[in-house]
Write a structure and sequence with these properties.
Blueprint lengths: L18 E6 L2 E6 L14 H20 L3 E11 L8 E10 L3 E10 L6 H8 L15 E13 L19 E3 L10 H5 L2 E4 L4 E4 L14 H15 L4 E9 L8 E10 L3 E10 L5 E11 L2
Antiparallel strand pairs: 1-2, 1-7, 2-4, 3-6, 3-10, 4-5, 5-6, 8-9, 9-11, 10-13, 11-12, 12-13
Length: about 300
C-alpha cells in the first residue's frame, strides 16, 4: 500500500483524487469522483480502481491499530452487487480483527449518487433519515462487498512510515491528491505494454509512478493490470469481481501477466491470472481470479 504523500504529484494513487475521513480509529469513509479516466469501456467504475480505493481506505484503520508497525496487503477481494455508474465512488471500511501477524478489514463500496459530503454519506450508511430537496428519501446504492487482509511488518520497512499517523486524523477530512497533480489516462501512465491481448499478456516496467512505500508495485496498480489483461481476453465483457493474493515483491521487472480462461458463458467469463517478475526467472508475484460480465 502506497503512502499517500501529499508532496508526490506524479503517483497513481494521487491521480484518483481520493478524499477520506477516519470517522473513528476503526472506520474510514473514502470517496472519489467517477471521472471518464476511471470508468470501464462500458461506463461503470473499474474494478481495479475500486480495489485501489479499498486498499488505501482499509489501510488507515489498519495502521491506526498496529502502529508502530506497517502493513503490506496480503489478500483482497471485491464482489460486485450492482453497477456503479453515477458516482462518486464511496468506500466504507471497518476493522474486523487485529492479530499479531495479520489485520482484517471489511468494506462496502457504494454509488454515492452525486453526494460529496462525507458526514451526509455516513448518516445515510448508518440509516439516519435524509431527504433531498424534492422531499424524497435519499439513499446510496451498495455496489460491492469487500474484504482485505494485511500482513503486519516492521515500520522500518516503509520509507516515511514514522510520519504517516492515521490515529491522529480521526474526524479530519483529508484530500489525498496534492495541488498540482496532473491526472491522465491511467493505463497509459502506468505504462502497460500489451504483448498478446488474446492470451492476456501484458508487461509493465517498474517506474516511480506505480511504486509504493516499500519499493514494489502498488497493489492497486497490480489489480488494474490484471483487470486489463482479463478484459483483453474477452472483449465486450467488463471485469466486475476480483480476488487477489499478493505473494512476493517485484525485484527486477518488468512485471508480466499470464492468464487462463476458467469458464465461458453467454453473459460472463472467469479468468485466472498470474503476475510474475519477468526479469527474475518469472518469480510468481500475484495470483488473481477475475469475473467478467456483460453490461
Amino acid at each position: 500500500m502506497a503512502i499517500s504523500d501529499v508532496n508526490i504529484k506524479s503517483n497513481f494513487v494521487a491521480d484518483l483524487d481520493l478524499t477520506s475521513m477516519l470517522v473513528t480509529p476503526e472506520r474510514c469513509i473514502m470517496l472519489a469522483p467517477l471521472t471518464d479516466a476511471v470508468r470501464s469501456s462500458k461506463g461503470s467504475s473499474r474494478v481495479g480502481v475500486l480495489s485501489t480505493m479499498l486498499d488505501v481506505a482499509c489501510s488507515d484503520p489498519a495502521l491506526a491499530a498496529c502502529r508502530p508497525d506497517w502493513t503490506a496487503t496480503q489478500d483482497l477481494s471485491v464482489h460486485a452487487i450492482d453497477w456503479l455508474v453515477e458516482g462518486p465512488m464511496v468506500v466504507d471500511a471497518q476493522l474486523l480483527r487485529i492479530g499479531k501477524k495479520t489485520i482484517v478489514i471489511s468494506a462496502i463500496i457504494y454509488d454515492g449518487h452525486g453526494r460529496s459530503d462525507i458526514q451526509e454519506i455516513k448518516a445515510l450508511i448508518d440509516g439516519a433519515p435524509k431527504t433531498n430537496t424534492s422531499g424524497e428519501q435519499s439513499a446510496l446504492t451498495p455496489a460491492a462487498k469487500c474484504l482485505l487482509t494485511f500482513a503486519r511488518i516492521p515500520g522500518t520497512a516503509a520509507s516515511g512510515a514514522e510520519n504517516y499517523t492515521p490515529a491522529e486524523w480521526v474526524g479530519k477530512l483529508r484530500r489525498r491528491t496534492p495541488e498540482g497533480a496532473e491526472p491522465g489516462e491511467i493505463n497509459e501512465k502506468i505504462g502497460m505494454n500489451m504483448i498478446d491481448a488474446e492470451n492476456g499478456v501484458i508487461e509493465v516496467n517498474c517506474i516511480p509512478y506505480i511504486i509504493n512505500a516499500i519499493g514494489t508495485i502498488n497493489g492497486g496498480v497490480q489489480t488494474v493490470i490484471l483487470e486489463v489483461a482479463a478484459e483483453s481476453m474477452r472483449p465486450g465483457l467488463v471485469a466486475t469481481d476480483i480476488q487477489v493474493n499478493f505473494l512476493s515483491q517485484l525485484k527486477v521487472g518488468p512485471a508480466r501477466t499470464s492468464a487462463t480462461v476458467l469458464r465461458d458463458a453467454a453473459d460472463h467469463s472467469v479468468v485466472s491470472l498470474q503476475l510474475m517478475d519477468a526479469g527474475n526467472d518469472d518469480k510468481l508475484l500475484t495470483l488473481a481470479t477475475v469475473l467478467l460480465q456483460k453490461p
